[in-house]
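We modelled the chain as a single entity of 83 amino acids. Its sequence is:
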Amino acid sequence: MFNLLGAIVSGLFVGWLARFIYPGPVPMGLVMTVLLGIGGSMLASFVTVRAAGEDYRDGINRAGCLSSVLGAMALIYIGRHLL
């Protein structure tokens, strides 16, 4: 239960931050912002953990937060330019 709530809160923060930093308007609602943040976190986790060859480590760190925002921004780019 708390993992789900934590994913929603962090997804909202990451999605909002990615929408704020991304140049130009990014029109989407609250639910899509949360899903964007969660998807960005999953994308960043997949890329960084797999590329480094490390096991999954639980916890919050600055590099993980930054890569989550960059992952969400990559999803915005993909959604705008490739779909």
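As a brief sanity check on the tokenised model: The helical segments are 2-21, 30-52, 62-81. The mean pLDDT is 83.
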